[in-house]
Design goal:
heterotrimer, A mainly alpha (458), B mainly alpha (226), C alpha/beta (311), B: 226 residues, mainly alpha, two-stranded antiparallel sheet, two-stranded antiparallel ribbon, 7 helices, C: 311 residues, 9-stranded mixed beta sheet, binds sodium ion, DctM (chain A)
């Protein structure tokens, strides 16, 4: 009952024009002060720890920064030109390429918002250039970005595995086919929409343009090699990869493309070569362009993280009051069979996903539903994938959806427009959820093939 | 992308320059430390053991310091679909109510921030659950150190003041945590300013208005003729 | 949920609630308090770091937002450095020796040693002895030389790793599995329960049974809260904690052995060391004691050695 009031309050404040972060925070604080003995100091602690205690969220500022350098320094422009040359003339081509880019990136990153940040700021601009509406572009990326937690590596899967004692390796393998399938379904949807609505497409400029733009964009495209190679070559973790990407983008922009920094010459004049101004090696770090790019990235990070931090306050308050436990146990005690049980699990997670960020919700719900699922003979890996897909949906549904916030931030558009734009693709994810829920082999086939049948130790 | 913020007074320009530079420097520092640790680990099989902790603290500083700036330049994200349906007069009232909610939020968080930080700084937390009603006699926690970040030598002079003369091995927690009361006090100040701006009719909303920007861009698009 | 009039005891910890030694103990404590003290007190346990992690929970306890916690002993080094004795390598021969030390006068004194800073210790909970794993077989310390190990943040453990020329790397716990898998770091040290629970064995060449250190916890409460409890409540609660501690500590060998066996069943490799091989590790790491003798006290080291001789 109280939860309903909380829910209404969050929505009511948001619709009144209160900033999202403050709507989440104020509702949580009032809820806490009225219903519990917990102190206001704990709110401050949660706020600080939202950044200091969540190491994996660090990927957000670093990818925001990498994108900022790539946009300012001309890296993004060259990549977009190349992509348009390659697929811009196909129906839905660039949007499909955007989904593909998200899938590629999901294979690097364990987090969905990071995927949106990294891909969104480049691809959305590119799609706009070919003539897609901003809404369509944002909708595609917001939803495709959720693949970040389904395609391995995935932080959410690590959380599930440690909460339920299943193998992380198995979970990762289990995510591969559903991840590819979901990506394929999104691409197919785009293609169909493109055909029906006759979406804009560019002209084919020939292989010459592909080659020219490809060479131009080479330094930027090489970033993909660096990130992939660095992560799988054991040089850095996915979070560190984001920082490396930012530094790389800075170096390329300042010293190779020279579209920013001390070697940049405004107007049509040729940019300076490094040997003409070797001091640039030092001054680039303090150049006004560098400062401005860092500042713009910092500003976006601040607005995104302040929302996420307040969402974590909400999570803290709900946990403190044991709300997820109460709801889950009320629904689970009803005693259903496997089919109905999975419906209930989906409902709990979908409702929970409206309010809480994925790892936090999963770590609470997984231990509650896991023993019952085992009783009913549901495969733990299969259950894990169902949960992850639910988390994906939660990320693009209001009022609390990290991907919505992040897309709204990077695309610079109202959150409700993102929600509306994401709807058709959200529908696809729902169909996908039903498939994953009732066709276990989608999740279990690959891990069983690679690692043998699972031994369930009760 | 975004319009640069224009301050009206000389002081305003100086403050703005400080705020923007601080945000840039903190983010740059986080990135550099992380990058250097990758280089040290992979290239030299070593590492700054305190690097991870330093970066997470800087992350908290970035957001808790920067949030007041984002209020100043009206960069907070929100939902404006509904308020845009109302007449300007109604919108003004809604904006004033929203402003009051923001002030209340910042005031509550500031009290929480003080209560959390004060014991770490050897000061007293406030009493009262909702509003500060006075000071309680808090247990001194100025001895409480962070996990990895070493204590800088040039700060040794604070040991007699803060730590009863005992030496600090690691940075005491009140230093990184100081951003909480500081940042939240700034936030409260900026929300009050924003409220006044709405009151005087200087601005109409607390959140980014995307509609206006989109309109301008769409028009530009047409004008360019492409 | 708790009834009106009951004293609410919130406990937050970082493991699961049914497989990890600490989680099992906390669940047992919760059910016993809620049964035996019904009407007087009510306990709510928050597992899996859902409410606080080990670092935050002590802050929250000092500000009165949780009443019980059981962080690993290294978290108390900030309160008083004597706790560093548990991080020192090879100070304790086995978990029985650890148990005896904790129940000796020296151990008892440690429980009250933090009261001036607001924490009261109620009991030591075992996890077990630490083992080492890496992406290559570790038979002698030289095998580890030049490798990068993820370590828990602790000056002692850093020094221990440096003694065998291992580069200690800080890393968020959530990233360790992936980092071991892609070889960003080469190895780690932990107990059988944790290596099994976190699945580290899946991405390591093998685990060497070094038993070189101990990973234990202390159940703590806020001194102010504890002393403010009605006498009968405090006595009854204290007794329950003691009984749960004794029961679960006695069973920890079993949990440990099960985790070890589960690793073998899942295809993990375990390297056993004979006495001679183990001595090489002892000789390599023991010099670390000298660095920290000022913190932990020679008398405590001596007491531990005297206890070792009996086991
Ligand atoms: Na991923
Ligand atoms: Na949601």
């Amino acid at each position: 009952m109280e939860v309903l009031v909380l829910f209404m309050m969050v929505i009511g404040l948001m619709l009144m024009g209160v900033p999202i972060a403050v709507s989440l925070g104020t509702s949580s604080i009032l809820f806490l002060l009225v219903l519990s003995d917990t102190s206001l100091a704990s709110i401050a602690q949660t706020l600080f720890q939202a950044m200091a205690g969540h190491y994996t969220l660090l990927a957000i500022p670093f990818f925001v920064l990498a994108s900022a350098f790539m946009s300012t320094g001309g890296v993004a422009r060259r990549i977009i030109r190349f992509s348009i040359a390659l697929v811009g003339h196909l129906p839905g081509g660039l949007a499909i390429a955007g989904v593909f880019a998200c899938m590629m990136f999901a294979a690097l990153s364990g987090s969905s918002p990071a995927t949106v940040v990294a891909i969104g700021s480049i691809v959305i601009v590119g799609m706009r250039e070919v003539g897609y509406t901003k809404d369509f572009a944002a909708g595609v990326i917001a939803v495709a970005g959720t693949l970040g937690i389904l395609i391995p590596p995935s932080i959410v899967m690590v959380v599930y595995a440690s909460a339920t004692d299943v193998s992380v390796g198995r979970m990762f393998l289990a995510g591969v086919i559903p991840g590819l399938l979901a990506g394929f379904m999104l691409m197919l949807t785009i293609y169909i929409i493109a055909r029906i609505r006759n979406l804009p497409k560019g002209e084919w400029h020939g292989w010459g343009e592909v080659r020219r733009s490809g060479i131009e964009a080479g330094w930027g495209l090489f970033l993909i090699v660096i990130i992939l190679g660095g992560i799988y070559g054991g040089i850095f973790t996915p979070t560190e990869a984001a920082a490396v990407a930012a530094i790389y983008a800075f170096l390329i922009s300042s010293f190779v493309y020279r579209d920013m920094g001390p070697l940049h010459v405004k107007g049509d004049g040729h940019n300076l070569a490094l040997w003409e101004k070797p001091m640039a090696l030092i001054t680039a770090f303090f150049h006004r362009d560098t400062r401005d790019t860092l500042f713009e990235a910092g500003k976006l990070t601040v607005t995104l993280m302040f929302i996420i931090a307040n969402a974590l306050i909400l999570k803290h308050v709900l946990t403190d009051e044991q709300i997820p436990q109460q709801i889950s146990s009320a629904m689970l005690n009803a005693g259903f069979g496997p089919v109905m049980f999975l419906v209930i699990v989906n409902v709990i997670l979908l409702i929970g996903g409206q309010f809480m960020e994925p790892s936090g919700l999963l770590v609470i719900v997984a231990p509650l539903v896991f023993p019952i699922a085992m009783e009913l003979g549901i495969d733990p890996i299969h259950l894990g994938i169902i949960m992850v897909v639910n988390m994906e949906i939660g990320m693009i549904t209001p009022p609390v959806g990290l991907n919505l916030f992040v897309t709204s931030g990077v695309a610079n558009m109202p959150m409700m427009n993102v929600v509306r734009a994401a709807l058709p693709f959200l529908a696809v994810l729902f169909v996908f959820l039903i498939m994953v829920t009732y066709i276990p082999i989608i999740s279990t086939w690959l891990p069983t093939l690679m690692m043998g049948p699972e031994i369930i130790v009760k | 992308m975004a319009h640069a913020y224009e301050a009206k007074t000389a002081l305003g320009r100086i403050v703005n320059e400080i705020e923007e530079t601080a945000i840039a420097v903190i983010l740059g520092g986080m990135t550099l430390i992380t990058f250097i640790n990758v280089v040290l680990r992979y290239g030299f099989n070593t590492g700054l053991i305190w690097g991870l902790e330093a970066v997470t603290f800087l992350f908290a500083w970035l957001v808790l310091f920067g949030v007041s700036y984002s209020v100043k330049v009206t960069a907070q994200l929100g939902v404006d679909a509904v308020i845009n349906l109302f007449s300007p007069a109604t919108r003004r009232i809604l904006a004033l109510v929203a402003g009051a909610v923001c002030i209340a939020y910042a005031a509550l968080v500031l009290k929480g921030a003080w209560d959390y930080w004060a014991p770490f700084a050897g000061l007293d937390a406030t009493s009262g659950r909702w509003f500060p009603t006075g000071f309680e006699n808090s247990r001194d926690q100025a001895w409480y150190e962070v996990v990895d970040l070493p204590f800088p030598e040039w700060l040794r002079w604070i040991e007699p003041i803060m730590n009863e003369g005992e030496t600090y091995g690691k940075l005491p927690r009140f230093i990184p945590y100081a951003i909480l009361p500081f940042g939240m006090a700034l936030l409260l100040f900026r929300f009050i300013q924003a409220f006044v701006r709405i009151w005087t009719g200087e601005s109409t909303s607390l959140i980014v208005s995307h509609e206006a920007e989109d309109d301008i861009k769409d028009v530009q698009h047409l004008n360019a003729g492409d | 949920a708790c009834d009106d009039g009951e004293i609410v005891i919130k406990m937050s910890h970082v493991t699961n609630s049914d497989k990890h030694p600490k989680g099992i103990a906390a669940s047992l404590l919760e059910s016993r308090v809620n049964e035996e003290m019904n009407g007087k007190a009510c306990m709510e346990v928050f597992p899996n770091s859902t409410l606080y992690n080990d670092d935050q929970v002590l802050e929250a306890m000092l500000q009165g937002d949780v009443q019980m916690a059981a962080p690993s002993l290294s978290k108390f080094e900030q309160f008083t450095k004597v706790f560093r004795i548990f991080d020192l390598p090879f100070v304790f021969k086995n978990i029985e020796a650890v148990d005896e030390f904790q129940n000796s006068d020296a151990g008892m004194a440690m429980k009250t040693s933090m009261e001036r800073r607001g924490l009261t210790g109620l009991g030591f909970w075992h996890n077990g002895m630490k083992q080492m794993s890496a992406n290559k077989p570790l038979i002698k310390p030289e095998d580890a030389a030049g490798l990068k190990f993820r370590v828990q943040p602790s000056d002692v453990i850093k020094a221990q790793m440096e003694a065998i020329k291992v580069s200690p790397q800080p890393m968020a716990f959530s990233e360790v599995y992936g980092a071991l898998q892609t070889k960003v770091v080469d190895g780690q040290e932990n107990t059988w329960s944790n290596i099994y629970g976190q699945k580290f064995f899946e991405v390591q060449d093998g685990t060497t049974e070094t038993n070189h250190g101990v990973l234990d916890y202390m159940v703590v409460t806020s001194t102010d809260w504890w002393e403010g409890l009605p006498d009968d409540v405090r006595t009854q609660l204290g007794t329950i904690v003691e009984e749960v501690t004794a029961e679960r500590n006695a069973a920890v060998g079993q949990v440990d052995a099960e985790a070890r066996q589960a690793i073998l069943d899942a295809g993990g490799k375990i390297v056993e060391l004979n006495a001679e091989q183990r001595q090489v590790w002892v000789d390599a790491m023991k010099p670390v004691w000298e660095q920290f003798v000022g913190d932990v006290g020679q008398e405590n080291i001596d007491a531990a050695q005297a206890i070792n001789a009996k086991h």
